[in-house]
Amino acid sequence: MISAAALQMSCVAALLTLAAVAIVLSRSKRASDVIYGLTMAVSVVATAASMSWLVRGGPEASAVILPIGLPWLGAHFRLDSLASFFLIVVNFGGAIASLYGLGYGRHESAPHRVLPFFPAFLAGMNLVVLADDAFSYLLCWEFMSLASWALVMAHHREAGNAKAGYVYLVMASFGTLALLLAFGLLAGPAGDYGFAAIRTAQHTPYAAGLVLILMLLGAGSKAGLVPLHVWLPLAHPAAPSHVSALMSGVMTKVAIYGFIRVVFDLLGQPAWWASVVVLFLGGITAVMGILYAMMEQDLKRLLAYSTIENVGIIFVSLGLALGFQANGMKLAAALAFTAALFHVLNHSLFKSLLFFGAGAVLTSTRERDMDKLGGLIHRMPMTSFAVLVGCVAISALPPFNGFVSEWLMFQAVLQSPDLPQWALKIMVPAVGAMLALAAALAAACFVKAYGVTFLGRPRSAAAETADEVDRYSIAAMFILAVLCLLAGILPGLVIDALSPITLQILGGRMPIQANEAWLSIAPIAESRSSYNGFLVLVFITISASLAVFFIHRFASHALRRGPAWGCGFSDPTPAAQYSGESFAQPIRRVFGTLAFHARDHVEMPPPGDIGAARLRIELHDLVWERMYQPTAVAVGWSSERLNRLQFLTIRRYLSLVFATLVALLLVLAIWS
Amino acid sequence: MVVMSDIAVQGVQMLLVLLLAPLLTGFVRKIKARLVRRQGASIFQPYRDLLRLLRKEVVLADNASWLFRVTPYVTFAAIWVAAALVPTFATGLLFNWTADLIAIVALLGSARFFLALAGMDVGTSFGGIGSSREVMIAALAEPAMLLIVFCMALVAGSTQLSTVANFLASSYVGLRVSLGMALIALIMVALAENARIPIDNPATHLELTMVHEAMVLEYSGRHLAMIEFGAFLKLLLYISLIACVFVPWKIALFGTGPLAYAVGAGAYIVKLAVAGFLLALFETATAKMRVFRIPQFLGAALMLGLLGTLLLFVSRSF
Fold first, then answer.
1. Is A268 left (phi over 0), alpha (psi -120 to 50) or beta?
2. Least CA distance to B128: which residue of chain A?
3. What is the ipTM of this complex?
């Protein structure tokens, strides 16, 4: 019997072997089936292994040390409850993406650019979660980034993809730099890079604060915290859709894992102000992410922006957990932390589902622009049903899973009066209102995404002649849709399965939910609040059936098809329908003037001209224009200046080296 | 045996809200008519309207999808379940703990989500304009609603409506500034959610300012009946909510027997009548506002909710 960690590591080894095999095979015809099939098998095994580990209540952590990496340290890998949960997210996401890839990959124009990197990317994410020393962690993190970068660049000739890859690379390097510094601080002057040593070491408040900031920069840039999110809506949509699903649904979660591992596990008892910072960033990210999504017309970019929103929601919840933990409120901390983990799971489910749906639309219409789609519910009934479930789930509506995690977060927010710090007391309800705003805007955004893409009349020939996609893709989408419902109606099972993690990280747990009657959940006590998704579903089903029965028994059955009424005026062309931009107009006017400096310009033809008037919408991405463009200009300007140094004579180089040496020695002399 | 009687009481409540909802709307319409010196239709007119719609054939747009035909039932069911979970004449009914106030609000959100999608389904401009404005109003109303929930939960220590109602009914809570603010905010949100004046006008059919009516413009026959019935129920739900939290007098405790239930039901009907009268009075006295004034209106509700919550933090006695 091999240890659990060894089993996970052999799955990783299998994935890496598959990547190598894919390089050899990739030009053959059956390569796609073989690679995706085997990747799926390996991922299923890995998922089952971590699941059984977590369900057994997370026994003693199991470790593997490989004789590679730093010579005096070796490469440490370790499986504990936290890691096993994230391994489930990673490997289940990988398995379902492979299933989807079995169908989707057949349309791939350049399989040799995707197949080798797909298992490698999965292996990289597994390794990040398993790593147990700073050196292996950073190495695996970089491996994961580069593998995903290669996948982003799979279609490098398409417009915009090269830029996406470039921005991604720059931001990933920036993030790794921040992580490098964070681990440097954690290891301290002794330089002990093992996580076990870091965990037991004492960290000064100053160093701990700095590490928190660096982790927010490093893990936050990978997860998509505003204002470090700019690469995400460029890179995620550029990859093939099943890879987009992995990047959005899973890789952002690996970044969140990194944050949790360092801030909750390695740093020890947090300071209360850490919570303020995380809450603030999370709240801003949630609202801005979904506002960006609302303004977007490209289906996959909309989904990528919505990922930013969900990352914000998770960070808000983590911030709450930090605040409660800093004040020793174990139960409330466990509640907030469980909500965060539950949302991690939920988001990985419905975001994968939605990206698969977007991929299906892309396959059958070759179109990502919503304003060229429409009416797909008639042409692609299965896809549109599954995507509808995903849209309801991501909009946090009962009885689906998105609602349960948001409900738990609101319950955690309601614990805030017991916090002693005034800043937190005032901040938490305000952040709660921001969460509610984000949830309501998410519902608006997905009404728009679904309504414009799948409902209405087709806006282009491609949408009019679209066909349903292959059955692998449909199977993948339906599995996810069923899981979204199951997690929504049986939340108690998920919460109980997560309790070993909160016990390990926070030393507290939520009450056992299996004891509640009728599968309901009660985070603190039933008299305070309870929710029963299962009964809600049953009641809705019963009352809807009653209504249907009554109507069919007693009401008229007559039904006549006719042209749409529209108050007597039928729109001449499908282009006159409400488009994505027009749907967003009310919200653009309410929130956009502040967030995007949005303005509508009506351009009228001169008098006498019978040409059409035009409406031009002016939107500014303030983060990009105010932060990134000036930085890019400054970097460009200074490198232009420094460029001269490349063309010096040998004498000048030598004097430059000498001057630098003297200067550095002087600094050292003055410093010490 | 006990479970059976519990289920029976819960069943009575589900039927009661169903029976009273059209009557409430008829009553409000009648009062509005009388206030402007019209005779007005009978207060039973909404029942007749529903029956008439049920007997009519459905005219469906050529490209309407299955979603369009399913939505009336889904929205009706979601609103009915939500309405049955708000305590009306008695607290602590068997299924009250199925969902707390946050979940009830979210159930209404589910109903709205499907209705907004149905508005987009046929692909007419009216449906689109209605849906897009409806989601904007919802986006503004939901944060305000959540702060109201916070405010109540801070006072009563629970988001469970039965517990809140029992707490406010039994112990001496007294007049509190923050509860007053929450009440005003809740009324503002309720007006917006029910598409009443000054947010939307339930009586118009051909104005570009309309929101809810534009969204359901393509519906006819039995589908329209379901949607209208849902709207009646939603109005009843919000009035029950305000009544059970802010005026929980005479509301029966669970298991106190048929007499207490009868008293509770009588008190409930009186409360509905008073609230309906006040609503009619308010609607006659105000004009509808421009669509882009709504953010200010709901922003004020949000600020009131936040202020009420913060006041509770400053001192538990406000």
1. left
2. A578
3. 0.95
Local structure of B61: helix, strand or coil: strand
Residue A141 within any structural domain of the chain = no
Q: Do A476 and A349 share a structural domain?
A: yes
Q: How far apart are CA A537 and CA A643, in angstroms?
A: 67
Contact B60 A561 (CB under 8 A): yes
Q: Are A124 and A140 in contact (CB under 8 A)?
A: yes
Per-residue pLDDT at A188? 80
Inside any domain, residue A637:
yes
Element (H, E) at A189: none
Q: Computed from CA positions of residues B219, B220, B223, B225, in that sequence, does the dihedral angle turn out positive or negative?
A: positive
In A499-658, which ranges are E strands? 559-562, 599-603, 614-618
Q: Does some domain include residue A64?
A: no
Q: List the single best residue of B97, B152, B155 to mutate versus A (max A Cβ within 10 A).
A: B97
Domain shared by A640 and A508, yes or no: no
Q: Which residues of B touch A425 (CB under 8 A)?
A: 313
Query: A556–B54: do the CB atoms touch at under 8 Å?
Result: yes
* A517 and A635 fall within a common domain: no
Tell me the C-alpha to C-alpha distance, in Å, between residue A209 and each of A175, A274, A507: 17, 7, 22
- Mutate one of A427, A431, A447 to test the B interface: name it (highest B CB count within 10 A): A447
Chain A (558-587) residues lying within 8 Å, Cβ to Cβ, of chain B: 558-567, 570-571, 574, 576-578, 582-587
The number of CA neighbours under 13 Å toward the Cβ of A549 is 6
* Model confidence pTM above 0.90: yes
pLDDT, tens digit, for every residue of A36-71? 999 999 999 999 999 988 888 767 788 888 888 777
Residues of chain A found within 8 Å of residue B306, distances taken between Cβ atoms: 429-430, 433
Q: Of A531, A548, A565, which closes a domain?
A: A548
Distance from CA of A100 to the nearest CA of B (A): 26
CA distance A487 to A344: 12
Contacts of A217 (CB under 8 A, 6+ apart): A174, A175, A178, A228
Which residues from B are below 8 Å from A388, CB to CB? 67
Sign of the C-alpha dihedral computed for residues A229, A256, A311 and A43 taken in this order: positive
Residue A362 resides in a domain: yes
Cβ A444 vs Cβ A587: under 8 Å: yes
* Segment (H or E) for B147: helix B125-156
* A367/A484 same-domain check: yes
Put simply, whether A529 touches B (Cβ < 8 Å) is yes
Q: Is any Cβ of chain A less than 8 angstroms from the Cβ of B166?
A: no
For A589-617, how does the pLDDT look when each residue is reduced to its tens digit (9 = 90+)? 999 989 999 998 998 888 888 888 888 99
Q: What is the tens place of the pLDDT at every residue in A65-79?
A: 888 877 778 899 999
Confidence of residue B205 (pLDDT cuts 50, 70, 90): low
DSSP of A311-376, one letter per residue? HHHHHHHHHHHHHHHHTT-HHHHHHHHHHHHHHHHHHHHHHHHHHHHHHHHHHHHS--BGGG---H
What is the tally of structural domains in chain A? Answer: 2
> What would the DSSP string read from start to end of A197-223?
HHHHS---HHHHHHHHHHHHHHHHHHH
What's the CA gap between A143 and A15, in Å, rounded? Answer: 14
Q: What is the pLDDT of residue B316?
A: 59
B307–chain A Cβ distance below 8 A for any pair: no
Of A429, A558, A560, the CB nearest to B309: A429
Boundaries of domain holding A380? 269-548
Of all residues in chain B, the percent with pLDDT exceeding 70 is 95
Q: How many CB atoms lie within 10 A of CB A191?
A: 12
Residues of A in contact with B61 (CB under 8 A): 561-565
- For residue B183, the tally of other CB atoms under 10 A from its CB is 20
Q: Do A544 and B158 touch (CB under 8 A)?
A: no
